């Protein structure tokens, strides 16, 4: 089981919520406020790709948005790390963009913490 | 969400019901609040703003709302509003907020009596955590409110609603509270795997 998770979201409360939920399950949670910061965190993790279980990203963020971030991640050494999109957006066209960019899953808010824990465990195993 | 011509303002006004939100750079929004809370988010640089209308059913502990289901539902309500203002061209770094409502008018059958206080506290805690400064508030008391937001300027007018007019608001809010509780208890299937 890979125990590190990266959450990329411009909402401080959302990051705190994910940190709280996943820390309770024993994960180490790294945080970034937007796509650019997310890429910086990944750059710092280079060489330890096997430790990162999953990347969770929002879609609507100032600066680099979630879909562009996913495309960029796919050009790095983390291209095989599963990416879960976590968003209020539920339109099929948006999901299609995420899928095309290389996301592994799409979780629409609001959801139960158990749902997040379940999908993270599935991907990070 | 319905748009009606307001005789006094002599312009169209978009009325927001419990659970709804709206954002614009030109429109006027209104909403009627009893125990519910409305948060206004406005970007004074790009001159766009929006308003929501929510009511969280449970008690929310101070400073740790994201640990409760009610609090997470409130985060969702706020995120929908913030995203809507951003889609209108707003920049969250410029946001200022205004908070309204949370009057003690709801008969709390089966609910904890601190629902209005809890909702006000959530709004303040959320905005504090997101570093969105609060420019003005009109909260609490034992009366209802009608709130108008002029989204081009961020100006807000608040009118008190007298006790005799509160019964229909109360009925509407009780229905909304029940609906929210059902949604929190049994959310739809929300995960798609690719």
What does this structure look like?
With 125 residues, chain A is of the alpha/beta class. Chain A has helices spanning 12-23, 35-44, 66-73, 92-101, 113-124; strands at 4-8, 28-32, 52-57, 83-87, 105-108. Helices cover 42% and strands 20% of the residues of chain A. Chain A has a five-stranded parallel beta sheet with strand order 2-1-3-4-5, sandwiched between helices. In chain A, helix 3 links the parallel strand 3 (52-57) and strand 4. Chain A is globular, with a radius of gyration of 13 Å. The mean pLDDT of chain A is 94. Chain B is α+β, with helices and mostly antiparallel strands and 194 residues long. Chain B contains three helices and eleven strands, in the order E-E-E-E-E-E-H-E-H-E-E-E-H-E. The mean pLDDT of chain B is 89. The interface between A and B is medium-sized, with 27 and 28 residues.
Number of strands of chain B: 11
Anisotropy-based shape of chain B? globular
Q: Of all protein chain pairs, which has the greatest interface, and how many residues does each chain bring to it?
A: A-B, 27 and 28 residues
Radius of gyration of chain A: 13 Å
For the record, give the distance between the C-alpha atoms at the N and C termini of chain A, rounded to a whole number.
5 Å
- The averaged pLDDT of chain A comes out at 94
Task: Give the strand order of the largest sheet of chain A, numbering strands 1, 2, ... along the chain.
Answer: 2-1-3-4-5
Rg of chain B, alpha carbons: 16 Å
Specify the biggest β-sheet of chain B.
5 strands, mixed
Helix-residue proportion of chain A: 40-55%
Helix content of chain B: 25-40%
Main β sheet profile of chain A: 5 strands, parallel
State the oligomer.
heterodimer
